Every structure is written in structure tokens, then in C-alpha cells.
């Protein structure tokens, strides 16, 4: 019984890895179960038996990705401005193109829900990461400052610098840091 459980768990992991790879290459509606199954070395019926539907499989991939993102930011110290900017840039270097693709595919209700959860998580993260700077502010000042920090740390800010302008990683990080520092300076 233990070997069977291990085999089933390994099959599940292979399917999730294949679906993750597919999601990095294609928009959600373009991900095909037959391609995921072939990549994982199983049949479509096996994928459906384990996950129930393509939607549930891709939702699980999205949930795993969200957990991975949360783990990337978990060790940051509130108020460590440089560390926060570095963490955002490192995350975007790894997943920024996929995040942009998801935003472009936001007309899909499943993607829209995922993107909205990402936006809410980013905003909550910014509020926690910059709490020492935000706590003394009035509610209006706080909202405006959080808005500005979210924009300074947004995936599109990274995309403009890295992809559209062709800036180096170091330059993009320095520019985003300058934006964040300017926002924080304006609150003093």
C-alpha cells in the first residue's frame, strides 16, 4: 500500500509540474490536458481522475504559485526598504513575464480571480513591509502612500524598465528603489 501511495503522489507531482510548465508558456484557455498528460507521462483520464477537471488542475497550480510567492516574501523585515525592493525585483525576474501574461488574460474569470488575489496580496504585503513608515500617517496619507508604493513596486514598473527599456537588472532595481525612497521621503 505504501508503494502505491508513493506512486500516486509522484504522478500528482508530475502532472502539477507539467501544468505549471504549460501555464508559463500559454494563456490558461490554451493549456491542453492532452499536452499536460503527455508531458507528465500519463493519460488524460488519469489527470481527470486525480484533479476532476482542467479548471481544478489549473486552480491548484495557481494556489501553489501563490504559496511560493508568499514564501519568497515571508522572511522580509518590516522597514527594510532595500530588501523589499530586491525581493520584488527577484520575484519579477523569476515570474514577471508570467504575471504580465496573466494580467493580459484577465478577461478569463478564473484568471481575473487569481490576478485580483495577487493584487490584494501585494497591497497587504506593502502595508506590512512598510508599516514603520505608514503607521504615523493619517488614513488619507496612508492610502495615497500605499497606492504610490504599490505602483513603484508593480510588475508593470519592472516590465517597463527591464523589457521595454532594456535596463539591466541592477539599473531596474536601483530605479525602483529610487521610486520607493522618493515616495517615503514625501511622507516625512
Report, as a whole number of angstroms, the end-to-end distance.
Answer: 64 Å
Unreliable residue runs: none
What oligomeric state best describes the polypeptide chains here? Answer: single chain
Which structural class should the secondary elements be placed in?
Answer: mainly alpha
Number of strands: 0
Q: Tally the helices.
A: 10
Number of domain units: 2
Profile the largest sheet: none
Rg calculated over all Cα atoms: 19 Å
Estimated share of beta-strand residues: under 5%
Question: Overview of this structure, please?
Answer:
The chain is mainly α and 188 residues long. It has two domains: 60 residues, Orthogonal Bundle (Arc Repressor Mutant, subunit A); 114 residues, no CATH class. Helix content is 81%, strand content 0%. It is built from ten helices and no strands. The radius of gyration is 19 Å and the shape is elongated. 23% of the residues are buried. The mean pLDDT is 91.
Amino acid at each position: 500500500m505504501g508503494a502505491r501511495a508513493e506512486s500516486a503522489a509522484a504522478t500528482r507531482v508530475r502532472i502539477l509540474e507539467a501544468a505549471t510548465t504549460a501555464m508559463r508558456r500559454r494563456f490558461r484557455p490554451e493549456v491542453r490536458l492532452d499536452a499536460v498528460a503527455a508531458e507528465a507521462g500519463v493519460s488524460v483520464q488519469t489527470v481527470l481522475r486525480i484533479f476532476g477537471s482542467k479548471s481544478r488542475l489549473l486552480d491548484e497550480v495557481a494556489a501553489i504559485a501563490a504559496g511560493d510567492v508568499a514564501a519568497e516574501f515571508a522572511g522580509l523585515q518590516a522597514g527594510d526598504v532595500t530588501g523589499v525592493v530586491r525581493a520584488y525585483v527577484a520575484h519579477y525576474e523569476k515570474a514577471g513575464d508570467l504575471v504580465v501574461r496573466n494580467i493580459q488574460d484577465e478577461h478569463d474569470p478564473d484568471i481575473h480571480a487569481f490576478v485580483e488575489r495577487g493584487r490584494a496580496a501585494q497591497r497587504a504585503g506593502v502595508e506590512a513591509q512598510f508599516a514603520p513608515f505608514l503607521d504615523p500617517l493619517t488614513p488619507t496619507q496612508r492610502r495615497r502612500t500605499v497606492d504610490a508604493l504599490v505602483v513603484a513596486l508593480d510588475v508593470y514598473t519592472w516590465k517597463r524598465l527591464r523589457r521595454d527599456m532594456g535596463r539591466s537588472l541592477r539599473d531596474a532595481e536601483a530605479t525602483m528603489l529610487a521610486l520607493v525612497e522618493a515616495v517615503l521621503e514625501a511622507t516625512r
